[in-house]
Amino acid sequence: MSTPMSMSETRPRYAVLAEGLVKRYRARGRGGVEKRALDGFDLAVRPGTVHGLLGPNGAGKTTAVRVLATLLRYDGGRAEVAGIDVGREPRRVRSRIGLAGQYAAVDEGLTGRQNLEMFGRLFHLGNRGARQRAGELLERFGLVEAADRSAKEYSGGMRRRLDLASSMILSPDVLFLDEPTTGLDPRGRGEVWDAIRALVAGGTTVLLTTQYLDEADKLASHITVIDRGRAIADDTPDALKNRVGGDRIEVVAADPGDLAAVARAVERVAGGGLVLTDDTTRRVHAQVADRVAALTEVARSLQDDRIAVEDIGLRRPSLDDVFLRLTGHGAGADRTPADGTPTDGTPAGDTQVVREGAAA
Amino acid sequence: MTTLEKNPAVTGGGRDHGLAYWAVSDCWNITRRTLTHYQRHPSAIVWQLGFPILSVLLYGYIFGSAMKVPGGGDYREFLMPGMFAMTMAMGFMNTAVAVVTDAGQGVVDRFRSMPMAPSAFASGRGVADLVVAAAELTILAVTALLIGWRAGGGVMPALGAFGLLLLLRFSLIWVGVWLGLLVPTPEAAGGLYAVAFPLTMISSTFVAPSLMPGWLGTVAAWNPLSSTATATRELFGNPVAGGGTWVEEHALLMAVVWPVVITLVFLPLAVRRFRLLSR
Questions:
Q1: CATH fold of A245-359, please?
Q2: Mutate: best of A95, A108, A122, A176, partner B, most B CBs <10 A
Q3: Among A177, A200, B201, B265, which one has the highest count of C-beta atoms within 10 angstroms of its own C-beta?
Q4: CB B32 within 8 A of CB A109
Q5: What is the pTM (predicted TM-score) of this model?
Q6: Could you report the predicted ipTM of this complex, rounded to two decimals?
Q7: CA of A174, closest CA in chain B: separation in Å?
């Protein structure tokens, strides 16, 4: 991988660095309550990696990205992107970054090619340079055939790819992707993922916010979980999963009347840990130390007692579990940032269960 | 991936140029963008002109015979400069809708995250809007000539009149940018028509203010739109139908003063609104 010219000075230790970032909002009207969208937010992203920024709605993900991408001024702390101070030299930062937002920021009145050429000229590539770069990017993102069609006629995935292409006209050092696949179908998501992987292979650092935890799991080598404007966890996806605890055994009873008996069977392998029963889904589960032994043991004792089960199995913790454990609510759950009261947007049973698990 | 490795450093050229150079260059690129929209959809201009052309036909031919022009003169001759001025005045809506659409689609954010001159977003919009306004005036004037309107005041005064019309349009660009950054959605911007339409009616566009009830006539006479309409009537050599009030007697002066005042008020407001985006 060749080093981008802009980094040839001294490659900074972190592509993105935030220390104690504070961003305040004042609610409208007189005497409006002050809200802190970012409340001492820390972030350190190593060059050449994909770093996931996860958090519930209203946690401050988008604010963090907008501050780092120079769209919002911050009120306290320190932020550096590509080694440049964001507050002091926003314009220099802008020539090193790319931003692709939740809403594809393409000009619908222009063709794909015209969009890229316009952005290229505004990135000061000159007419010829902009034309050439547009050609390259159209090819790279598989948009050659649609190049001269109006962007309005593009599918969701194509539009997002055009947005991505626009965000990397200058092969940016750092690319900010704010929920790049929200609202896309699986195929569109796959297209965007491929584009992101290719970018990182070329040396770009990506800061990715997403609602989809599997997306972070697939793409990111490092994850920061943000809640209420603060980083509450920062680690690799695997380490985060380990933090939630080991595997769980899960039994679904065929008859709700057997739930208590099933719970007793599971209790014997839970090693004193909490056994959780969910009446609505007829599910009993608990954390176990030795997964295979536990499974055999429970299956045998249930068979001995002639208790019919619909399903029995082991489950590894997912990033969703990490999320619930850390924030007390699911990734998709909406929360009013003002009072910070969680509202259960996720299926009640599941949220309930894991939250209890966290307390155990 | 190969592309990236081949071109590891696509960097912006022109570090050697000053900020002023890029302010002009970026402005031109934003202008080009808007003009490309019209080039791709020329019918947009025709749609924008639908209202004034329809108004000319309705007022000129349906109400025309019933309309009085104080001081005498042909009503359609009186109407045309009013139509020109009204088209310029309503133009602020086009600016506002374009700005709010860009803001809503994230295009404004993309521009702000790029190393382009921040002023170019508004200046480019402004230049493009003036070019489009000039095209609109040309189409309207040709339509007017076809239905018998004549500018009898000479070429230079006629050019001066078009200059005043564009000056009014220029001042309203800033109202449009300000409103475009203020209202949340293009639909809400569309709702501004409900406010804009009566404001253009309470002027000398269709009817001489001296024919209105006293207080309404005063409001209409002081409407900036009336000053431009009256001044251009004088310059085109069309019936003026002045009511003899101070503001009507000094229409030429006021057709310059009003746009300057509007610009002085709304340009800073628009800039402030733009800066507030980073709050």
A1: Alpha-Beta Plaits (3.30.70)
A2: A122
A3: A177
A4: no
A5: 0.80
A6: 0.85
A7: 12
